[in-house]
Amino acid sequence: MTSFSKKAAAALLALSLVAVACGGGDDDAGDPTAASDDTTEDAGDDVAESDDDDGEAELLEEDDQVGVDAGSADLLGAGATFITPLMLEWIRDNEPGINVNYQSIGSGGGIEQFLSENVDFGSTEAHLTDEALAEAQEIRGCDPIHFVDAFGSVVVSYNDPDLDAALEAAGQENIILDADAIAGIYNVEITSWDDPAIAELNPDVDLPGTNLVAVHRSDGSGTTNIFTQYLDDAASNWDLGFGTEVDWAAGTIGGNGNEGVAAETQQQPGAVGYLSYAYAVENDISTAALINADGNVIEPTLDSISAGPSSIIDSIPEDQRFAILGVGGDGYPIVGAHWILAWECGYDDDVAESLIEFFTWAVTEGDDLSRDLFYAPPTGAFEEAVVAQIELINSAN
Amino acid sequence: MAAPTSTPPSSLRGSGAGRRADPIFRWIVVASATSVLVVLAAMILRTAIDAWPVFDAMGIWGFISGQEWSVGSSRSEVTGTYGAFPFIYGTLKISFVALLFAVPLAIGIALFINEVAPARLKKAMASIVELLAMVPSVVYALVGIYFFRLEIWAPIGQFIANSPLGNFRFFGPPVLLSSYWSAANILAIMILPIITAICREAFAQVPRDEVNAAYAMGATRWETMRHVIVPRSFPGIVGGTMLGLGRALGETIAIAYLIGSSQRWAPQLFFGGDAMTSVIVNTFADAAPEAIWALLAIGVTLFFITMIVNVLARLIVYRVGRFAGDAAL
């Protein structure tokens, strides 16, 4: 028995060591800037290669470029977790071969790190407030720049086998909701599917009386910001305002991260949650179709989430601080932008050059990667506007 | 060395240069001891200073009793409303429910290991209980989310809510998966090892003479446990309970995943709520500066609650120890 417990102890110890090692991964990347400045090209190469565990020829080639291109500086960025999967792809595949260390610490942390000048660029799903903008000017003596690198959307997911059966019996693919109904569920005013407000939107479906439990994000999140901003704009019965964190009604529960909300919605009978679209697609989670500002019923698809941003492109202000509201036509209504924050002045020349090269590549040529991961990239005239905005980096020096 | 006495001088006693090491050694010891106090003081002062704007804006009582937690996004002033009552309430509620389960269970396990189990089983049982303490809390969180709450806690909760007990608001429906109940249950498992260990320690220190005397008087094994060992060890049990409570108050990850994080308090047991540690860990990463001050204020409050618990524990152990003997910590 003793030897058994020793073995078990050893196994647990090993498990916890693995957990610690994995958890520390983010930090291990450290700040590569110092290495590239002070060492020869060869040494830089070694560092790049040893970082790369995959050992794929293609990757090594690109890492080589980092060493060869002596003019490009490494970049350090921090911010939204929302963009992380796409950012990692961009970093791995970017053609200018720029070495970017992106720390996925959340939008709030991204803004904070950006304004404290600890990072070269910040990343956020909520643009800077006027107050923060004024403060930023004092900090660095010039304007911060916003530019959009991708759009994402938020879907409403649910878990109820009874509802699925009822929908199937009625030959309807998704349950149809509008902003007022979603707000009602999150206000705990609508507590079952057969509530008149939902029945009215789904006249053909024999809705079950399942008790609904609204699930929200327990962590501060840009996904919450997009979702509540939509409700704040489109729902007549929403008075909790919007933000990365709001004061949710009693009787709702929270999950940590997309995973937490998904786990909650999958397990809790009658749960209704909101998830980033990419997450819902990858995990094959059933979602609701929504009624947009023109009264059209729209299912979330890559086309419908791209249609929202395109419909308002003409009204986007020059500084690119905006919200995507009142989406009509074929557009899926809950859509939000993701911004990169950079400065108009104060970068070393090589850092500024790297920033411009990397993000210009990302928004012009990284489109396919965006679509693969279910983000909508900026396109057409708006893409040009984004590139023009990127060119402003260091322009006020 | 020709010593006049029959006892040779101790080999521990140095001579010459070695003895000059004494002041240095003493200095090191004092410095080590002081460093603890300095670190602690620095932490309290620093967090209290950073949290001050929130206490200042809400008032200390307003912060503790306020029921609305709605964060602002300012970088320089307090614009939101910060009432930490839902979190304080949640932390205390799950901790006490956890103690309710863990303490009797721990006493039972400790008695079994010390008094009932055969020698070989004794060691194995003791190591197994200690293994519980070595499982990382995130593993508890995952097992709780994907197994315990689905298969065990929620069904039991449902049973209680449907029984006549469900007429009391506290046990009333609905039964959610993420709830005070789930959080309290995982806490009970997590604090079990420490309470068991201290109870065993206390039981082992009951003078063997008294136990044997009880047997000699014709007491059965169970009577001896009930009337001699447990009462004699009462201060130890209290001490262990308080240490368990301390651990429960501070537990973070498992709670953050299981309590439901609703930022509102609810009188029901089977309902979602939030706790002090979990709101900090959940919202910290994305918080604006003013919200971080508010989270630090929660941290300061938690520190004082823990301190009060510890002082109470000392007092109880001291008071009880004076008339129940010294079979305690």
Descriptive key words:
heterodimer; A: 397 residues; alpha/beta; 8-stranded mixed β-sheet; 3-stranded mixed β-sheet; 11 strands; 15% strand; B: 329 residues; mainly alpha; two-stranded antiparallel sheet; 12 helices; 71% helix
Mean pLDDT of chain B: 88
Q: What amount of the residues of chain B lies in strands?
A: under 5%
**Biggest interface in this structure?**
A-B, 50 and 49 residues
**Oligomeric state of the chains?**
heterodimer
The profile of the biggest β sheet of chain B is: 2 strands, antiparallel
Q: Return residue spans of chain A where pLDDT drops below 50 for at least 5 consecutive residues.
A: 1-7, 9-69
Q: Record the strand order, biggest sheet of chain A.
A: 2-1-3-11-4-8-6-7
Mean pLDDT of chain A: 80
Shape label of chain A: elongated
Q: Strand pairing plus helix content of chain A: what structural class?
A: alpha/beta
| Spatial gap, N to C terminus of chain B | 44 Å
Shape of chain B, please? flat
Instruction: State the helical fraction of chain A.
Output: 40-55%
Low-confidence stretches of chain B: none
Biggest sheet of chain A, open or closed, and with what strands and sense? 8 strands, mixed
Radius of gyration of chain B: 25 Å
H/E element string of chain A? HHHHHEHEHEHEHEHHEHEHEHEEHEHHH
Order of helices and strands of chain B: HHEEHHHHHHHHHH
